[in-house]
């Protein structure tokens, strides 16, 4: 027996009446949406769920702009949703029918559309039954291939694969790259030159003219709306002559131009007046394309899916979060992102979809972080006297920022949970000293530590530094007091390390005799095992993939982890991509370090830069000359290292010793060149970006960067950090490829500040997150809507995620089931590495 509440009976009555009238939007005087004000009150009196009320109201508000077929689909979808939730024995509205989408081979080229033909509806050939998936809140039919759509056969499906469009879901979430605003509708006699408008008129005449000896064509049509007439023209579209006929009413949208003193519209979008406007008279979406795919054709295919399936989406975001964050429903957001009624509606849709991306990312990161924090780890502590002894052995005082970083690490090591901390700080800010003190704390208890660096030269630098600071081995610069370790307890393991020595190191690590090993990928590529690995330090962490870090972490039992980077990370990235890490910033340089003088000069002033280099070498210093390319390319206007090295050596600096370094050299050759430069065998090093990381040459005081406009700010900042590491004044000369780049805003910022975080923010805005992420999980860079620089949105999503986890970390309850299922599908269970 049917049990139906009064508000649902009224809803069914309106829907049935609409069906009887052919979905003309006149079941209620003034339009179906006029029923909502009273119906909402009645529905709440009947205690209908807020989800159902919101689903009905949001979809009915869009009802008036839909075609009759689409209206039938929407009402059918609403009623199914209602009956699934509220009615014991569901009754569909009379005369409603399940809309199906058919498999059909394309019969005409996608670029050809006949506006004189009546709009076709999807044929019924293969029925797809939409069912709601508990995992994602989406109709299961969205997994169907694109070939179920009219107009997409096997050939077009292969073409769409180049856009990664394989299923209906792909089409639903394929977002426009921009929008054309054709929503301004004006009478023809009020048109003005230069404006983008829509006009409605009746075709008066159509003509085809051949141009340029018959190789090109021009179709001209005159339309009139009673107030005036205007000529429309299309180049090389002769098929329009067959589709445009006098007396047909059309809608034309485009830019008003002028020809021989008369206003015209060239290459306008055109549609029939009695057809639902997809390309005119509205804010029109413009999608990314590939060859053989036309905009109008793709827009039609996506519209089919959006109109049919967007209203069927069950919102996984609970109502209380939507209200708290001031967000529209997901189904409305999907409709408005593809077919916005106004710019305000489009902004609301983008805000909702962008929020979802960041919110889901934050939830996943928080869950990963909580999972690790729930694990137990060895505790390491040290008293004040021990630290006083360590500080007394340093030939300098720690900066305030270093002391704060050390405090963070000491607290982590004593917490009983695995440390998972990112330390970021400019080159020379003293990260390695703090890492050495952390190692000393761990080895005080007899446990083992490991440092992994991206290059052999950087690993070797860490090895020598820590031999001095931990084992008391003196060098020419400083002498340390009583050691924390013996020299034989600290070893270096590289890919080039002799196999016999590798075997010795492996045995020492396995037995526990070696307390600290420093190396490169060899530490994870070789069968290395540890007796008691408790601390992992990864330098320049963005150079390693997540899987590589996970392999190293798996060699211990919940070891503590420190990752370090000299690349300043913008706040927005720190809140999102690195949200699973605790972050410490060393934003203070040691006293006495001089700012590198940075200048931008014209390419024609290059000789002045060479004179500066010559002078610095004569004073006993060394320098770098950096190029964007390894070898010259005919397609790129930039100098290259190989050719310029030969020219500089023979023509400019014949009396100096020049080394050459680039990424195409074999690893052993690169290491040999770097070592020779470090040991003073070269006066100048001609190089590419390969020197960005891992070169510590205190004697280097000058750097010339050719083609500076071709580098990102983060790269330029890293390169500049290779000079000025000693006590002498250092210089960095930026030379753009062409004089026009002299006013390049990015380069001007480089000359005005050495604030790495300011530069990082600018670089993120201009070049995106790729330079900061390296080989981190690719999903972080695949945000389709959210702008990674939008700190306001990120903080809002993070605030909502944190609030949710504080009260319901397991996402229990019916309202959170879809969200929990989404996270389960999208994220691992926390067993993999998260840093």
Question: What distinguishing features does this structure have?
Answer:
disordered C terminus; alpha/beta; OB fold (Dihydrolipoamide Acetyltransferase, E2P); 37% helix; 15% strand; 835 residues; single chain; six-stranded parallel beta sheet; seven-stranded parallel beta sheet
What does this structure look like?
It is built from 28 helices and 21 strands. Helix content is 37%, strand content 15%. The protein is an alpha/beta fold. A 7-stranded parallel sheet has the order 11-12-10-13-14-9-15, with helices on both faces. Among the domains are: 1-97; 101-174 and 290-319, no CATH class; 179-286, OB fold (Dihydrolipoamide Acetyltransferase, E2P); 597-753, 3-Layer(aba) Sandwich (Rossmann fold), CATH 3.40.50.300.
């Amino acid at each position: 027996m049917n049990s139906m509440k009064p508000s649902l009976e009224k809803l069914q009555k309106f829907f049935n009446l609409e069906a009887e009238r052919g979905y003309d939007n006149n079941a209620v005087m003034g339009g179906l949406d006029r029923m909502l004000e009273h119906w909402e009150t009645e529905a709440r009196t009947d205690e209908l769920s807020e989800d159902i009320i919101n689903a009905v109201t949001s979809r009915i508000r869009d009802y008036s702009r839909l075609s009759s077929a689409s209206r039938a689909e929407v009402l059918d979808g609403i009623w199914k949703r209602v009956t699934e939730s509220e009615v014991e024995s569901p009754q569909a509205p009379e005369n409603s029918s399940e809309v199906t989408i058919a498999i059909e081979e394309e019969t005409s080229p996608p670029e050809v559309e006949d506006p004189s033909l009546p709009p076709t509806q999807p044929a019924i050939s293969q029925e797809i039954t939409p069912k709601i998936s508990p995992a994602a809140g989406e109709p299961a039919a969205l997994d169907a291939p694109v070939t179920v759509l009219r107009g997409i056969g096997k050939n077009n499906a292969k073409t769409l694969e180049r856009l990664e469009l394989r299923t209906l879901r792909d089409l639903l979430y394929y977002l426009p790259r921009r929008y054309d605003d054709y929503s301004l509708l004006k009478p023809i006699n009020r048109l003005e030159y230069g404006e983008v408008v829509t006009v409605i008129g009746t075709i008066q005449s159509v003509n085809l003219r051949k141009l340029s000896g018959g190789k090109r064509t021009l179709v001209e049509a005159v339309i009139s709306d009673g107030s005036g007439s205007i000529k429309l023209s299309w180049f090389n579209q002769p098929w329009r002559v067959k589709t445009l006929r006098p007396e047909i009413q059309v809608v034309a949208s485009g830019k008003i131009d002028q020809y021989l003193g008369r206003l015209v519209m060239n290459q306008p979008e055109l549609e029939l007046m009695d057809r639902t406007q997809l390309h005119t008279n509205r804010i029109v979406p413009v999608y990314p394309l590939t060859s053989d795919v036309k905009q109008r054709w793709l827009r039609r295919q996506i519209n089919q899916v959006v109109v049919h399936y967007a209203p069927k989406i069950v919102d996984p975001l609970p109502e209380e979060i939507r209200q708290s964050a001031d967000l529209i429903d997901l189904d409305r957001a999907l409709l408005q992102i593809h077919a916005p009624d106004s710019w305000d509606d489009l902004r609301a849709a983008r805000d909702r979809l962008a929020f979802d991306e960041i919110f889901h990312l934050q939830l996943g990161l928080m869950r990963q972080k909580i999972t690790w924090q729930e694990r137990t780890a060895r505790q390491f502590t040290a008293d004040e006297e021990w630290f006083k002894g360590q500080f007394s052995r340093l030939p300098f005082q720690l900066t305030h920022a270093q002391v704060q970083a050390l405090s963070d690490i000491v607290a982590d090591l004593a917490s009983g949970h695995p440390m998972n901390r990112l330390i970021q700080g400019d080159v020379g800010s003293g990260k390695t000293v703090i890492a050495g003190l952390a190692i000393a704390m761990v080895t005080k208890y007899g446990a083992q530590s490991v440092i992994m660096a991206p290059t052999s030269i950087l690993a070797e630098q860490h090895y020598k530094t820590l031999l001095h600071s931990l084992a008391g081995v003196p060098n020419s610069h400083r002498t340390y007091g009583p050691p924390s370790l013996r020299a034989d307890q600290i070893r270096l393991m590289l890919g080039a390390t002799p196999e016999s020595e590798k075997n010795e190191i492996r045995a020492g690590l396995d037995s526990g005799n070696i307390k600290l090993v420093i190396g490169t990928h060899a530490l994870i590529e070789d069968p290395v095992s540890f007796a008691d690995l408790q601390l992992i330090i990864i330098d320049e962490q963005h150079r390693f993939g997540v899987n590589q870090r996970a392999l190293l972490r798996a060699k211990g039992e919940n070891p503590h982890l420190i990752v370090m980077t000299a690349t300043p990370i913008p706040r927005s990235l720190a809140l999102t991509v690195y949200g699973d890490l605790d972050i410490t910033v060393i934003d203070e340089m040691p006293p006495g370090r001089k700012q590198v003088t940075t200048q931008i000069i014209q390419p024609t002033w290059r000789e002045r830069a060479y004179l500066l280099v010559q002078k610095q070498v004569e004073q006993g210093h060394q320098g770098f000359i950096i190029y964007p390319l390894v070898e010259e390319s005919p397609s790129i206007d930039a100098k290259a290292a190989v050719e310029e090295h030969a020219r500089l050596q023979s023509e400019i600096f014949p009396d100096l010793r020049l080394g050459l370094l680039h990424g195409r050299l074999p690893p052993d050759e690169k290491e040999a060149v770097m070592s020779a430069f470090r040991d003073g065998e070269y006066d100048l090093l001609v190089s590419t970006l390969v020197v960005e990381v891992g070169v510590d040459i205190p004697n280097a005081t000058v750097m010339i960067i050719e083609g500076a406009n071709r580098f990102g700010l983060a790269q330029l900042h890293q390169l500049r950090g290779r000079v000025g590491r000693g006590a002498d004044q250092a210089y960095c000369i930026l030379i753009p490829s062409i004089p026009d780049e002299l006013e390049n805003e990015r380069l001007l910022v480089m000359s005005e500040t050495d604030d790495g975080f300011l530069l990082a923010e600018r670089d993120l805005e201009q070049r995106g997150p790729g330079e900061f992420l390296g080989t981190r999980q690719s999903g972080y860079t695949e945000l389709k809507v959210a702008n990674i620089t939008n700190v306001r949105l990120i903080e809002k999503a993070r605030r909502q995620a944190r609030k949710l986890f504080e009260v319901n970390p397991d996402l229990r309850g019916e309202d959170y089931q879809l969200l929990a299922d989404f996270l389960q599908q999208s994220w691992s269970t926390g067993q993999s590495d998260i840093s």
